[in-house]
Amino acid sequence: MSTAQSELADPPQDGISAIQFAPSHNLLLVSSWNTEVRMYDVVQNAKRAQYNHQAAALDCCWGTDQNRCFSGGVDKCVKTYDFASETESVLGNHDKAVKAVCWQKELGCCVSGSWDKQLRVWDLRQTACVNTTLLPDKVTIFSLLFHHIVVGTASRHVWIYDVRNLSEPEQKAESSLKFQTRCIRCYPDGTGYALSSIEGRVAMEYFDPDAASQAKKYAFKCHRAQDEKGIDTVYPVNALAFHPTYGTFATGGCDGKVIMWDGQNKKRLQAPWSYPTSIASLAFNPTGAMLAVASSYTFEEGEKDAPPDQIFFRSVNESDVRPRAKQAQ
C-alpha cells in the first residue's frame, strides 16, 4: 500500500457482520446483513467471489487455506463455499439463527453456534453434524484457538471447552463484566482471552485456574467520551483483533474509534484512529502489516440515518503494535 490507508472499492450495501483475512493471503472474507458473503482480493481491490444466504449472513470464516470458507445466518443454515470450483453447499441447519462459525483445522471440522442454544460440529468428510452441545442460553459469540473454544452466551455466561471433547465444559463462568458480552478473542499464545462488553470495557482473562495466572487478569475502560460537564458517554466495544506477531490488540467501538493496546503492559499504544461510524469488525492480515476496519452502523441508537458501510485498509507501522515495556519505578 502506497498510502497509510485505503478503502475497499465495492463494499456490501448493508450492515457488515464480520470480516476475516485468509490464513496466508491478502484475501478478505466479508459477511453482511444483505445476505451476501463476499471474497475480495485486497491487493487488487477487487471482488473475486460471492454467494448468498436466504437471510442476513451473521458470521463467516476461512477453512484451512484460501480455497474454502464457511458462514452462518438468520436462515438457520451453515454453508460452505469452494472457491476453486465456485460451488456452495449447505452443511446443515440449526433450529434458529446461526450467530457464529469457526474452523478447527486439526479435526477438519466447522463449529457453529446458534440462538437455539447449541454448538454443532460439522465434519466435511461426512457432510453431517457429528456433535451437538447444549448451552445455557443463546450463543452470541465464540473464539477458537488451538483446542480451546470460548463461548459467550446471552445472560453473560462464558463456557470454555476443549473442542476435542464437547461433552463437558472445562470451565463455567459468568463474565467478569457487568453488561452484555459483545466480542471474545483468544490470545495468540493460547493462554487466555479478551472479552469486551456494551459498557465500554475489556476484560483480560486466563485459562489456567492457578492463583498466579488468575492474579494477572484485569479489566479496563475504553471507548468513552466526556462532555464539558464531565458526563461520560459510554460506547459498546464491538470488535477485538490480536496482532499475529506481537500479541498486542486493537479494539473497535460504537464511537467510530480504533485503538491499539499492549495488554501485557497495560498500555494504550497510540491515539485513537477515527472512522465515520461504528466499528463492526476488525481483522489483521497474516503478516500484521495491515488492519482491515469495517465501519458499519450497528444500530446501537436504533433506526437513524448513518454513513454508508465501508471497509478501510490501514497500513500498520511497527511503532503502532510493538509492546512497550513498563518503565522502571
* Top CATH class of the largest domain: Mainly Beta
Largest sheet: 5 strands, antiparallel
Quickly give the structural class.
mainly beta
The percentage of residues in β strands lies in over 45%
Mean pLDDT: 93
> Share of helix among residues?
under 10%
WD repeats: 91-132, 237-271
InterPro entries: WD40/YVTN_repeat-like_dom_sf, WD40_repeat_CS, WD40_repeat_dom_sf, WD40_rpt
Keywords: Repeat, WD repeat
List keywords for this structure.
329 residues; Methylamine Dehydrogenase, Chain H; 2 domains; four-stranded antiparallel beta sheet; 2 helices; 51% strand
Descriptive notes:
The chain is mostly beta strands. It has two domains: 9-139, Methylamine Dehydrogenase, Chain H (7 Propeller), CATH 2.130.10.10; 175-299 and 308-322, 7 Propeller (Methylamine Dehydrogenase, Chain H), CATH 2.130.10.10. The chain contains two helices and 31 strands. The protein has helices spanning 211-214, 318-321; strands spanning 5-7, 16-21, 27-32, 36-41, 46-52, 57-62, 68-73, 77-82, 87-93, 98-104, 109-114, 118-123, 128-134, 139-145, 148-153, 157-162, 171-174, 181-186, 192-197, 201-206, 218-221, 224-226, 232-234, 237-242, 249-253, 257-262, 267-268, 273-274, 279-284, 290-295, 310-315. The strands form eight sheets. Strands 24, 25, 26, 27 and 28 form a five-stranded antiparallel sheet that branches. The chain has a four-stranded antiparallel sheet with strand order 1-31-30-29, with no helix packed on it. A hairpin with a 4-residue loop joins strand 4 (36-41) and strand 5 (46-52). The longest helix is centred in the middle third of the chain and has 4 residues, at 211-214. The radius of gyration is 19 Å and the shape is globular. The model has no long low-confidence stretch (mean pLDDT 93). WD repeats lie at residues 91-132, 237-271. Pfam families: WD40 (PF00400). Keywords: Repeat, WD repeat. InterPro entries: WD40/YVTN_repeat-like_dom_sf (IPR015943), WD40_repeat_CS (IPR019775), WD40_repeat_dom_sf (IPR036322), WD40_rpt (IPR001680).
